[in-house]
Design goal:
Blueprint lengths: L4 E4 L1 E4 L2 E9 L15 H30 L1 H14 L5 H11 L3 H17 L4 H5 L1 H15 L14 E5 L4 H5 L6 E6 L7 H9 L2 E4 L13 E5 L4 E4 L3 H22 L15 E6 L15 E6 L1 H5 L7 H14 L4 E5 L26 H7 L1 H14 L4 E6 L5 H20 L10 E5 L2 H5 L1 H4 L5 E4 L1 H9 L17 H16 L3 E4 L10 H7 L3 E4 L4 H9 L3 H11 L5 H12 L1
Parallel strand pairs: 3-4, 4-5, 5-6, 9-10, 9-16, 10-11, 11-12, 12-13, 13-14, 14-15, 15-16
Antiparallel strand pairs: 1-8, 2-6, 3-7, 7-8
EC number: 2.7.3.9
GO molecular function: phosphoenolpyruvate-protein phosphotransferase activity
Catalytic activity: L-histidyl-[protein] + phosphoenolpyruvate = N(pros)-phospho-L-histidyl-[protein] + pyruvate
Length: 574
């Protein structure tokens, strides 16, 4: 047996698995050689036939995605259908065949790679990763030009861990969870469609593992940890035994955690908090109550905008928000208005290129500058409020002027709908995200006017500490246990308490069990997190004593460094 090899990647979907490697090598555009043809009409006919087969293939995959993942994520594949029909994609291939006398294979390669390179040159990480979708549809088209069927992933009939240079969204949709234990890819990031789909399917996934995967051969034994991002190739006997023990403990823990789904999040001394979930699509709200979620603390509406080639109209948005409201059966659903910009761009909005987009034209700033965006979304939300308990939250608020202007538009839209006789809820809470230090520092002023706060720790940490968490050179400084961040959180919660309002948290800190005693001691009212973290946090809260947590929080507020804070929390856990 080969020597044990440890490969590190980016863990994007939890799970510890042990299984044989299935090395997946699809058609590679880069392997196509440039060739001319003496029969351009025949090559053009071959290309058209391939397009017809490819569209039929994609239609079947869209139907499968609808069944497995829901309509929102099937839009990813519908986008590939649009790409095939795009006048800037397929017709140039025909022109290369007729005018330049290139073969169909060469034409597909040239246009696909050129189009992908345009996406890859964009400053936004999200847009850059859409290049994978372009390559995906080009590779599929090429496979039919060559007279071959598409991916064989759907034919897997035994338990395997897939190893690939990359897995496209259409590849991922074909994965059968009965047989595919997980996958490891050379490239990929947390914002890629593949990562999103992997989480939806619940398949353990490690992306961006680098060139080390080239040493993996078909049939090699793999041990993967999807949370830690570790892949061990040909593990020795002890590693196999350890992995099996971890799998057993993981399953045991999962079974034990299920008991907490129906329990209220009440501390040992009787203090109750609300546990909510972060979602990105209405489909994610289906079945959410069964996980133990009591609300949706953050509905990220940008996915509805990012998964299409044009702006969703009022009716499209209304149906999405209505679906989420009905799925939660009267439990609260906080809908965040469009939070686009930074690393999330919409090509059809034609946003200007910025040197520092995270500090620029984004979120509420964009929507106040282009009020039609906000008016359309608020109309859809207010209409959907007739079907459930919806709340509205404005992101990226930095000052009272922005809040008052946004709230004013909300009131105008509500009055207009009332005049039109359109049903909606009588009372809808309206709040803001606290993710900019200036808003946290003025929390006492905001608390007089808003209905609630929701602390977005991901951005609050970034802006408070001036740290780009995607920059590996400084990411070590990114820490929500920094005393400055903790003091801002305390200031916001105190302000809401003073004026009879409430504060929630929808950043990743809310789903961290280590942070739970601190947040309890600071007085956080609502905790919103990934659904997979809900039962862990409930178990933690039920075992806490709030009065003790208050004492712990007071001690932590007097500490000087993140290391001291972590040490205190780790000691408290033990």
């Amino acid at each position: 047996m080969s020597r044990e090899l440890n490969i590190q990647g980016l863990g994007v979907s939890e799970g510890i698995k042990l299984g044989k490697a299935f090395v997946y090598s699809p058609v590679r555009l880069e392997d196509v050689k440039d060739r001319k043809t003496d029969a351009p009409d025949m090559e053009a006919g071959l290309l058209h036939t391939a397009k017809t087969q490819c569209l039929a293939d994609l239609d079947a995959l869209v139907a499968r995605a609808n069944d497995i993942l829901g309509e929102e994520k099937a839009v990813i594949l519908k986008g590939q259908v649009s790409m095939l029909n795009d006048p800037s994609f397929f017709p140039p291939m025909e022109q290369l065949i007729h005018k330049e006398k290139w073969t169909a294979e060469t034409a597909v390669r040239m246009v696909t790679l050129q189009t992908a390179s345009i996406f890859e040159s964009m400053p936004s990480e999200y847009i850059r990763e859409r290049a994978a979708d372009v390559r995906d549809v080009g590779s599929r088209l090429l496979s039919y030009v060559r007279g071959r069927q598409g991916s064989q992933l759907s034919d897997i009939q035994e338990e395997v861990i897939i190893v690939a240079d990359d897995l496209s969204p259409s590849d991922t949709v074909q994965l059968d969870k009965r047989y595919v234990l997980g996958f490891v890819t050379r490239i990929g990031g947390k914002t890629s469609h593949t990562a999103i789909l992997a989480n939806s399917l619940g398949i353990a996934a490690i992306l961006g593992a680098g060139n080390g995967i080239e040493q993996i051969k078909d049939g090699d034994m793999l041990a993967i940890d999807g949370a830690a991002g570790v892949c061990i190739v040909n593990p020795d006997t002890k590693t196999i035994e350890d992995t099996r023990e971890k799998m057993r403990l993981q399953e045991e823990s999962r079974q034990q955690l299920l008991a907490y789904a129906d329990k209220a999040a009440v501390t040992a001394d009787g203090f109750k908090v609300e546990i909510a979930a972060n979602i990105g699509t209405p489909d994610e709200a289906l079945g959410l109550l069964g996980t133990g979620a009591e609300a949706v603390g953050l509905y990220r509406t940008e996915f509805l905008f990012m998964s299409r080639s044009s702006m969703p109209d009022e009716e499209t948005q209304f149906q999405a928000y209505k679906s989420a409201a009905k799925a939660m059966q009267g439990c609260p659903v906080i809908i965040r208005t469009l939070d686009i910009g930074g690393d999330k761009e919409l090509p059809y909005l034609e946003l200007p290129h910025e040197l520092n987009p995270f500090l620029g034209y984004r979120a509420i700033r964009l929507c106040l500058d282009r009020p039609n965006l906000l008016v359309t979304q608020l109309r859809a939300i207010l209409r959907a409020s007739a079907y459930g308990n919806l709340k509205v939250m404005f992101p990226m608020i930095s000052g009272l002027e922005e809040w008052r202007k946004a709230k004013g538009i909300f009131e105008e839209v509500r009055e207009q709908l009332r005049l039109e006789g359109i049903p909606m809820a009588e009372k809808i809470e309206v709040g803001i995200m606290i993710e900019i230090p200036s808003a946290a520092l003025q929390a006492d002023r905001f608390a007089k006017e808003v209905d609630f706060f929701s602390i977005g720790t991901n951005d609050l940490v970034q802006y408070t500490l001036a740290v780009d968490r995607m920059n590996e050179k400084v990411s070590y400084l990114y820490d929500y246990f920094h005393p400055a961040v903790i003091r801002l959180i305390k200031q916001v919660i105190d302000a809401s308490d003073r004026y009879g309002k409430w504060t929630g948290m929808c950043g990743s800190m809310a789903g961290d069990p280590l942070a739970a005693p601190l947040l309890m001691g600071l007085g956080l009212h609502e905790w919103s997190m990934s659904p997979s973290a809900i039962q862990k946090i409930k178990r933690q809260i039920i075992n806490l004593n709030r009065s003790e947590c208050k004492e712990l929080a007071e001690r932590i507020l007097d500490m000087d460094t993140p290391a001291e804070v972590r040490a205190a929390l780790e000691a408290y856990q033990t």
